Automatic annotation (TrEMBL):
The lineage of its organism: Eukaryota, Metazoa, Ecdysozoa, Arthropoda, Hexapoda. Gene3D superfamilies: alpha/beta hydrolase (3.40.50.1820). It is found in: Lysosome. InterPro entries: AB_hydrolase_fold, Palm_thioest. This is palmitoyl-CoA hydrolase.
Amino acid sequence: MIKKYNLINFLILNLANLIYCKLPYRPVVIIHGVLTGSESMELISSRIQEMHPGTQVYNTPRYAGWNSLEPMWHQVEQIGEDVMAIAAAYPEGIHLLGYSQGGLVARAILQRYPEHNVRTFISLSSPQAGQFGTKFLRLFFPDLVCETAYELFYSRVGQLSSVGNYWNDPYEQKLYMKYSKFLPFVNNEAKSLNTTLFKAALTKLNKMVLIGGPDDGVITPWQSSQFGYYNNNATVVDMREREIYQTDAIGLKTLDNEKKLTIHTVAQIPHFMWHKNISIVDKYILPYLD
Ligand SMILES: *[C@@H]1O[C@H](CO)[C@@H](O)[C@H](O)[C@H]1NC(C)=O
Ligand SMILES: *[C@@H]1O[C@H](CO)[C@@H](O)[C@H](O)[C@H]1NC(C)=O
Ligand SMILES: *[C@@H]1O[C@H](CO)[C@@H](O)[C@H](O)[C@H]1NC(C)=O
């Protein structure tokens, strides 16, 4: 009975789209944050379907809970394969949204699979420039403190964890460049054979949306959600003043010049509320999903 209803609903919607010459909404792939799973992204998923009827939403169940601490490249590879399979079924393009660590996984998927057809990429409070705060890990690693975490993360073993892969200690940049297997590469701070592709993969986006805010409390510094970060004397520098932007290392400047880069700073949203707040979805996410 339910199936039948859905089918009728689907036909009516598509008929309406035909009559008004409206194209159907592109599918949206959603990637959850660290130490949670797809259930944490249900509100965003259902709100998209409610406001944009007919949208296919793929809310990845992969790397939930503890598994979300697996190395970033593993997650990028696996979830990336799913994203590319979905993309192949929709030649008109898809959209990609990631929350917290998931936004960094999502961005690296674009770079690892430069043949993607993602049009809009939305990063919802993600440590795009790295992380230098242990608050979200305290629950699980009560002894971890910022000042000495590098000793754990900048080692072969430490690099076996996702957090180690984007741990960016402003006081230990030499060790960061030496040990980190992930962030220096996707941010083109370390040159590799893929540097050119990594940039091309981002500049082909139609839209990049970076959402974050000063009351986040977990992403440290919060400006990392918008590619801002500490300089080498631990002063936070905004994206546009940083080398990654000024040298156009990964195409942020190109996107910005072409008006394809949108930054939203929203106050009074704690980290664990970004994906639980309907008004955030309505104001800063839905307008970019066509
Ligand atoms: C470059 O990318 C290819 C495939 O995307 C990957 O197999 C290879 O390991 C990457 N090399 C470097 C140096 O990042
Ligand atoms: C730290 O960096 C900021 C911004 O680049 C600069 O204004 C400030 O003078 C620097 N402070 C020190 C102690 O070097
Ligand atoms: C939701 O976000 C809006 C900003 O868009 C904020 O004003 C409001 O207080 C938030 N609501 C909750 C319950 O956090």
